[in-house]
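User: Round two. Same drill as before: sequence, then structure, for each protein.

Assistant: Same drill it is. First protein:
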Amino acid sequence: MGATHVTVTIRNPASPDRSWEGLFLVDTGATDSLVPRDSLESIGLAHKAQRIYELADGSEIRMDITTGDIEFMGEIVGGTIIFGDPGTEPILGVTALESVGIDVDPRNQTLKRLPTIRLKKLRSKKE
């Protein structure tokens, strides 16, 4: 099974004219997206906090995070972005995909738009 890639633009929500574009690996095993630190800093995004992530080998790592606008396939979503090491391949995580209703077809290595965005049943106030 091969890898799926998509072109993504990261925008600074405070200055939408400041953006960075790259080819991202689509990783349904990753919750959040990851962008090289120097690319995020070049558009004025600074780390806001740290979060502990579990790597594929089971080890844990504390990483800087921020929030930004993630734009791909004609859609835009605000999301958590991890600061990766310079030169690291950017990753598009599953949260961004699901937030705009995009699913991965691993057999064809493509992304497909769902007819609707999934939402759990809402309870009415009468229940």
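Second protein:
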Amino acid sequence: MIMNNKIKYNWFQTEELIVIDLLLKNMNSDNVNIIINPDQVTVIYEFKEELKIILQSLIDVLNSSWKIYPTKIEIKLKKSEESHWSKLEKENISDITSITHNYPSSTTRGPKNWDKIEKEIEKEEQDAKLEGEGAITQLFQQIYADGSDEVKRAMNKSFIESGCTVLSTNWKDVAEQKVKVKPPQGMEWKSYS
């Protein structure tokens, strides 16, 4: 059992999870809040921070959770990687450094900076020239994003009223009357009634 500030707690682990049991009785969601971050867990009890655990390794926040029971609060932290932690907390705060993902590489040039590579790939994807339907979709998205309120209104009205067969950017053309369905040449429009 560990006592940090005023809260006693136990912890155990599996290869995938860290489970922390906060020994607090008669708690409810009105007087306790648990904040789970990739490198720490903070317990706010009766509107003041009572416990902060700086974790030894990173966790997957989206797959972590906590639950209130009559005699305890159970916090389940999903480990980022399956492993065995030698301890729950870092030795001291000075152990915390900014996180950069430099993983070893099989090349002799040294480790790769995967964060930099990810940013380069994202930039290439943004700069890539789309073709076919992707290019048309991107064009319409750009017209809609850059368009005035009238252009957006015209696009929405024409697309919906025509059963997705007409897309107009001219509000004056579509404002007064219902937009008629115009199927592609050689096709016939049928209603699903």
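Residues 15 and 84 are 6 Å apart (CA to CA).

User: Perfect.
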